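Propose amino acids for all 295 sites.
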């Protein structure tokens, strides 16, 4: 039998050590916690004892550029997105012959953790989101100390009797932690491929970007089998293990259909569409120029 490793007690012990714990928060928090502004979420997490919090979507900027580089290299007959750890695991175990086509690119969570640790060598990174597969990914990456599902975080908030609706935020800091619409869209099925396609169309208007997406492991298997049979050639193949994408993860506390609608609004409300417009972009380019940094 399989079970989900709960990390509440580990996180509580971590917070007592007074370390600089940064929280990387998945985009679909907007539905699970009824929050429309990330700064409110950030304030809540800091009130709970975390040092700081940022949107995981910030890591999507570096990831998007890496996909563009790989597709433009012409080295891949097809390129399979590596954004979903559940699909990555599926390929490793059941479709090992597809591994050469799996993009050698970090997930946004891991890329974001690298960004944080590059800026703050004493940082301890914790991820919060709806995905239970992230727990295994975090352990294997050794960059993320713990992973909490939204359900687990809700338990901490309730235990501290914290009323999110009454929190006052510092509006002067809001712009510093805002992610792009493209980055926030990674949480939905098709989000990775669309962000990459839009970036390629911007930089290479004459380059055709062919996309095939699947959501849910059953459909992901079909996608891989069709690729094996030669149905796709020159495609970016995106598979998301959960129906609807990350928003349908087992650790969510909101209906995925409602989450999709709320997330769409959150994406549209982003101050900018392109990750290049992010206040973090200079930091991202600095990392990309570092020979010891690779996403």
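Proposal:
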């Amino acid at each position: 039998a399989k079970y989900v490793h709960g990390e509440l007690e580990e996180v509580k012990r971590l917070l007592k050590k007074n370390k600089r714990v940064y929280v990387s928060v998945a985009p679909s928090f907007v539905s699970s916690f009824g929050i429309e502004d990330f700064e409110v979420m950030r304030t809540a997490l800091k009130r709970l004892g975390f040092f700081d919090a940022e949107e995981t979507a910030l890591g999507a900027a570096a990831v998007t550029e890496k996909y563009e580089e790989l597709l433009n290299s012409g080295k891949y007959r097809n390129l399979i997105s590596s954004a979903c750890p559940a699909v990555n695991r599926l390929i490793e175990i059941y479709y090992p012959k597809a591994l050469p086509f799996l993009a050698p690119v970090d997930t946004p969570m891991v890329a974001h953790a690298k960004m944080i640790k590059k800026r703050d060598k004493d940082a301890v990174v914790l991820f919060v989101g709806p995905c239970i597969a992230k727990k295994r990914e975090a352990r294997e990456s050794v960059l993320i100390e713990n992973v909490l599902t939204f359900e687990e975080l809700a338990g901490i908030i309730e235990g501290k009797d914290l009323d999110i609706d009454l929190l006052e935020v510092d509006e002067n800091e809001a712009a510093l932690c805002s992610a792009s619409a493209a980055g926030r869209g990674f949480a939905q099925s098709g989000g990775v491929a669309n962000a990459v396609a839009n970036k390629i169309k911007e930089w290479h208007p004459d380059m055709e970007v062919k996309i095939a997406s699947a959501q849910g492991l059953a459909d992901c298997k079909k996608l891989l089998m069709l690729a094996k049979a030669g149905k796709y050639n020159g495609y970016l193949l995106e598979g998301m293990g959960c129906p609807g994408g990350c928003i349908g993860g087992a650790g969510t506390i909101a209906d995925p259909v409602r989450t999709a609608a709320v997330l769409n609004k959150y994406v549209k409300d982003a101050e900018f569409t392109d990750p290049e417009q992010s206040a973090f972009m200079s930091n991202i380019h600095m990392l990309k120029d570092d020979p010891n940094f690779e996403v």
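The CA atoms of residues 119 and 230 lie 44 Å apart. The chain is about 45% helix and 15% strand.
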